UniProtKB/TrEMBL annotation:
Annotated source species: Microlunatus kandeliicorticis
Entry's localization field: Cell membrane
Name of the protein: UMF1 family MFS transporter
Annotated TM spans: 28-51, 71-92, 104-122, 128-148, 169-189, 209-229, 265-293, 299-318, 330-348, 354-376, 388-411, 417-435
Domain Major facilitator superfamily (MFS) profile: 263-449
Length: 449
């Protein structure tokens, strides 16, 4: 933990609640513990274990309704993105206004855990594809809503001078958690012929047990933040309204944001594009490793361990650099690195080349994600972080169908390999849009209500 230097207290800042409570190192670690635990869904379920199991172990060579498992997964992710786009910003706004940001985090996290437990029902037969897709899409929705409240807590556990390193530390904890969990799962369930609790491959049992073990992991490591980070005060009564009225408040705030700070709007648009590409790198990378580059399904888990280690190192190191050069430069550098590496992978052959350039790709994902979160925390009005991170999720998910849809389009029309082109195009679009955005200078006070 020595890589992250946390100030003993935060200065007084305007906004809801007046002076900010004392923030200690253990509070930061407790907050980042949620990142550590959430890797159970992001690394295991979405990326390196259950996703590949769904499209290869469940679907295999079958083509349900004439489409591959990869393509169906892209469609499923796109549908989840539409629902998140419609609801995320309102859930964030309501959590801020009602003073129940922590409670919202607990509820959404609990729902993710329930979905992960339900994945135990997905056997390795093509008919189970549909329930698997529904559950994974539902989990993606719930964890995005949980992330809105979690990310909104970042200014509560950092100072303006340490936002970058604290955000980077959180992302690094997430990747490190993924490493440890993947190692445990490999030793306990994937590698042996008969794993823990007598688990075998029959009926896809080893992968179904992976989902159960991961659910327990997430539940345990999500608890510290719920006790260590205090609840935010409720917002003005005028903002505590019903669900339908929440949309009116949202639209009013978006109009006010457009009039007062168009740079923030430009950032939300730019980040929406490239974050969709970042998500696609991990969502489809492991699947392509198996279907295109010939990597064994058990080896994908080992790749995932190393990939998380590389991404964690990138987030941690460049998180410290970001506090010196600013988040925009870190994001720009990362996107350029991603686009160049993805282009090389498009023409690469074999597992060795995928190991080399796949890991280079992961090196840039962590810094881009961490610096984007820190960028928004620097420009979010005090007391409106949940709403801003809700908008962050909404704008991201407003186009979150784009990378999966382009991947599905290119893979469906051509081959799964050509699906990489769709991801690279989305990253390029985000980079070009980011060039118009000015770097943030400080954390803002809230606009008048």
């Amino acid at each position: 933990m020595s890589a992250v230097k946390i100030e003993p207290t935060l200065p007084e800042r305007p906004g809801a609640g007046g002076p900010v409570a004392r923030v200690r190192r253990r509070t930061v670690v407790a907050w980042a513990s949620w990142d550590w635990g959430s890797s159970a869904f992001n690394a295991v379920i979405t990326s390196f274990v259950f996703g590949p199991y769904l499209v290869r172990g469940v679907v295999g060579e079958a083509r349900p309704l004439g489409l591959s498992g990869d393509t169906w997964l892209g469609i499923s992710n796109a549908c989840a993105g539409v629902l998140i786009a419609l609801l995320a910003s309102v859930t964030g706004q309501r959590a801020d206004a009602g003073g129940h940001r922590r409670r919202s985090l607990a509820v959404w996290t609990g729902l993710v855990v329930i979905v992960m437990l339900a994945l135990f029902s997905v056997r390795n037969e093509p008919s189970y594809l549909w329930i698997g897709l529904v559950l994974m899409a539902t989990g993606a929705i719930f964890i995005e809503f949980a992330g809105v409240s979690y990310n909104a807590m970042l200014p509560q556990v950092s100072t303006p001078a340490t936002l970058g390193r604290v955000s980077g530390f959180g992302w690094a904890m997430g990747y490190a958690g993924g490493i440890f969990l993947l190692l445990i799962l490999y030793v306990g369930f994937i590698a042996p012929d008969v794993g823990w609790f007598g688990v075998t491959s029959e009926g896809g049992l080893r992968f179904r047990m992976v989902a159960v073990f991961s659910a327990v992991w997430f539940a345990l490591f999500a608890l510290p933040v719920l006790f260590a980070v205090p609840e935010v005060p409720a917002g003005p009564k005028t903002r505590r309204v019903g669900l339908i009225a929440s949309y009116r408040v949202l639209f009013r705030d978006v109009r006010a944001l457009w009039r007062a700070d168009r740079n923030s709007v430009y950032f939300l648009i730019a980040s929406a594009l490239y974050r969709d590409g970042l998500a696609a790198v991990f969502s489809f990378g492991a699947i392509l490793a198996v279907s295109v580059y010939g990597m064994a399904q058990s080896t994908v888990l080992i790749f995932g361990i190393v990939a998380n280690l590389v991404a964690a190192a990138g987030a941690l190191v460049l998180g410290r650099v970001e506090d010196v050069i600013g988040p925009k430069r870190v994001i720009t550098l990362s996107l350029v690195g991603l686009i160049v590496t993805a282009t090389i992978l498009l023409f690469a052959e074999g597992t060795t080349m995928f190991w080399i350039f796949g890991l280079i790709l992961c090196l840039w994902v962590g810094p881009a994600q961490a610096s984007s979160r820190a960028f928004l925390a620097r420009i979010a009005p005090r007391g409106r972080e949940g709403q801003m991170f809700g908008l962050y999720a909404t704008t991201g998910r407003a186009v979150s169908f784009l990378a999966p849809a382009l991947f599905a389009l290119f893979s469906g029309l051509f081959t799964d390999r050509i699906g990489i082109v769709g991801i690279a195009l989305v990253l390029l679009g985000g980079l070009l849009a980011l060039l118009k955005v000015r770097s943030p200078h400080r954390i803002q006070s809230p606009p008048p209500s």
